[in-house]
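We store chain and fold; thus.
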Amino acid sequence: MDNSGIYVGLDIGTTSIKVIIAESVQGQLNIIGVGSDRSKGMNRGVVVDIDQVAAAIQNAVHQAEQKANVSISDVYAGIPANMLSIEPCQGMIAVSDESKEITDQDVRNVAAAALIRNLPPEREIIDLVPDEFIVDGFDGIKDPRGMIGVRLEMHGIVFTSPKTVIHNIKKSIAKAGLNLKSLIVEPLALGKVALTDGEQDFGTILIDLGGGQSTAAVIHDHKLKFTQVDQEGGEYITKDISVVLNTSFGNAEKLKRDYGNANTDVTSETEEFPVETVGQTDAVLVSEHYLSEIIEARAEQILTRLGTALDRVKAFDLPGGIVITGGVTALPGIADLVAEMYDRSVKLYIPDQMGLRHPSFAQAFGLVTYVSRLSEVDRLVHTPISSATADYVSSTRTTQTTTTATNQTVKKAKPADHTMKDDLTPNETATQQNADATAKPKKEKKKRGESIRSFLNNFFE
């Protein structure tokens, strides 16, 4: 299948919104436009103010359009793994054509049959990924079209998420004047670019350390098997620096970027830098080592909670090691800290495309790459979900148009708001949001920065 065309990936993050415009020509993906804007109206990966998010999306899209010199209307957006549920599904139909040759419509019909399930009223289907098709008992088929058969079956994986999360993302995109083609599970897309084929096959842990939250995913046999979200990220590191050093959030962010290191072992206690503190005229000198202790204390807490959840599903037994990405991984020493805490080999993923050579762009790049690589069968299977999304967008625009027209009429008349049930994660039904923070990490680690940790715990209680 020739997937040539323009693809637009929209990454709605807690700290920033990123847009990537990519052009696919004969299997080669070229980045032609990039846009980024500071997030407003987001909290821990979830939209909390639709108007503010819509405005930020418009700004990021406008930047990307100017650089690419194209006008865009269709986007593929990522959805975070918050309370994501991963479950196997299957459907079966009788082949409809008189000749008994399987057609595109049969693939759509069997996908629709696989989606017939009793969902709780608060959840909605995001995506359906086919695993195999079975024609009259013959399994292992990836594309059944053109084959002769009486009975067609499909086995796949269905992803569901809370309706509130999905609705707010869709509403924000529609309010920004864009057409949402599809929602894509973020760890699923990220794994396609951050992991090699062998890592996806044998099993690897993928950790995305973002600004608002941190996500661990397990990918094995080319399937997303498990996700765990920790509701803390880079912003919490910045807040810690701000509180401990008594400086503004902006200054704390600058200190983190300019002098920060997540590994205290490689920092110096004699190297100092000035810090503007609240209530004092003169700057205070702070050592590089002290700043590193603050950063490391929070990073250890995040990694400990993620490690507890990963250990519970025996993810550390997989041979692929650990791959980390996300904005926080730009901090020096973070890979060493992860490797020391988990006692596993760690690799840092950074996109190598021009204009994207920063780990914070990994997710947005994953979205356009994932979409451009979808096969024709993948797209057919997704049709029932895409149709529902299109109906939603259409109804939303109709409502907005009707509301605008009504308001105008009123003015004239007046006087001047997770885990997959398989061998890797038995007896679990959804992504666990709050791991036991008191459990021991994979590897016993020497205590550091106890005074910092104690201070922060007391302050935030």
